[in-house]
Amino acid sequence: MSAVATQPEPIGAPPPPARRDPMVLVWLGAVGLSWFGDYAWTVALAWTAAHTLGPVVAGVVLGAEMLPQALLVLVGGVLADRHEPRRILVAGQIGQAAVLVLGAAAWSSGLHGAPVLLAIAISFGVASGLTIPSGATLIRQVVSGDDLGTVQGWNQISGRAMRLLGAPAGGVLVAWGGPVAVMLVDAVTFVGIAAVLVLVVRPRFRLPRAAQQHWRESFGDGLRYLRRHDTAKLFVVGLTALNVFVTPVTGLGVALRVSGSGWGAHWLGIADACLAAGAIAGSVVGIRWQPSYGAAAGFRMLVLQGLAIVAVGIGWRPALVVAMTVLGFTAGAASVWLSAAFLRVIDASHLGRVTSVTSLGDMSLMPLSVPALGAVVRATSVLTATLVFGLAMSLLCLWFATRRAIRSLVA
Q1: Lower Cβ count inside 10 Å, N or C end of the chain?
Q2: What one-character-per-residue DSSP string does 104-168 give?
Q3: Cα distance between residue 409 and residue 14, in whole Å
Q4: How far apart are CA 334 and CA 256, in angstroms?
């Protein structure tokens, strides 16, 4: 059975196009500012943990956010489908800001070390798990179906740009004022987006709300929805599987290729910059050219991305530059089309729960796929590993692109 999504009910007059919508533009600006703070804090946390803790404890601190996030994201999906997502997001932003302020106060009073950093990381994991699905439902409440691709593309461009700015800023801030300075900067960004959500953002579309059942019963209803709707099921499996092949190569595979070839650490920076530049260009193209059958076009684009993954392992510097640029470009364009199609095709009453399943898939499979790539490299070579991962991704995406439930889906 193909998914025929129940569309949100408009509230009042239709919104203006996204490019001329002050509310959407202010909201996206606030989200970008928050990402700047997050990337700055990520760098500051890694630096502080590496310089004040032992290697094992530092690794625990850096990974502490993932477990509560994975444990609670399904609950977050139920909350997003039951309650007003804007209020859930505001509570999450304020909570994370409060944790950072308390952490800064504790650090300033002399309570340095793992307990403070662990408390912040775990609290962030709890907040992220409970609020990630609400982000998707809020977009569906605020943006019209025709503008979903545009807004998702802008979001991706903003995220990439803020990573390029926030990461080095975090390094500068932690060197200048220690972790306290970065904690306070990140707290301000959380307060800023919470203020925008309260004062500026207003829902334009009314989403149907899920019944007030026990959360396990409500989540079970979400799983039954996926079993009944082929298109939704294919989207969840497809989107979850993609990062299994991409992230290990961009994270570990490139580092192993550069190290094994003796090119010098600066080539890691060059490769990451090519990836980011390609992704921004791809998102721009994805926004300006949105095909009628966006889901199928997105999966076909990712067939090319699989070939770029193969090229990462060749061991020739020009090939690495081209491969990372193409990898970023295809990711940027395909993400615009696929994310917009996903938001449109999933029934509005189940969007939070379906998003939570996709997020949990990423969180569960990613920690396994990176060591898997490392194991293949150890047993064979970097080129063999990228060949296996890249061709597997190309074949999988080609299979998804040719499924009737995907290829017949009109944007």
Answers
A1: N
A2: HHHHHTT--SHHHHHHHHHHHHHHHHHHHHHHHHHHHHHS-GGGHHHHHHHHHHHHHHHHHHHHH
A3: 24
A4: 27
Average pLDDT over residues 347-372: 83
Burial 299-322 (b: 16+ CB within 10 A, else e): bbbbbbbbbbbbbbbbeeeebbbb
Rounded-to-integer distance, Cα 231 and Cα 293, Å: 13
* Rounded Cα–Cα distance for residues 194 and 326 (Å): 36
Local structure of 192: helix, strand or coil:
helix
Indicate the helix (H) or strand (E) that contains 30.
Answer: helix 22-52
User: DSSP label at 252?
Assistant: I
Task: Give the pLDDT of residue 3.
Answer: 45
Which uninterrupted H or E stretch holds 9? Answer: strand 9-10
Name the nearest CA neighbour of 126 among 100, 101, 83, 96: 96
Cβ–Cβ < 8 Å for 254, 271: yes
Q: Which residues pair with 9 in a beta bridge?
A: 206
Q: Rounded CA gap, 303 and 307, in Å?
A: 7
- CA distance between the termini of the chain: 19
- pLDDT confidence of residue 410: 67
Q: CA-CA distance, 101 to 4, in Å (whole number)?
A: 46
**pLDDT tens-digit profile of 148-157?**
888 988 998 9
DSSP string, 62-96: HHTTHHHHHHHHHHHHHHHHHS-HHHHHHHHHHHH
Helix or strand (DSSP H, E) at 205? strand 205-206
Phi, psi of 9 (to 5 degrees): -85, 125
CA distance 80 to 74: 10
Any idea what DSSP says for residue 6?
P
Residues 6+ apart with CB under 8 A from 392: 245, 306
Mean pLDDT (whole number) for 7-19:
80
**CB neighbour list of residue 293: distance below 8 Å, 6 or more residues apart:** 407, 408, 409, 410, 411
Share of the chain above pLDDT 70, in %: 97
- Tokens representing residue 275 in the block: 């990836």
Helix 254-261, helix 317-345: angle, nearest 10: 180
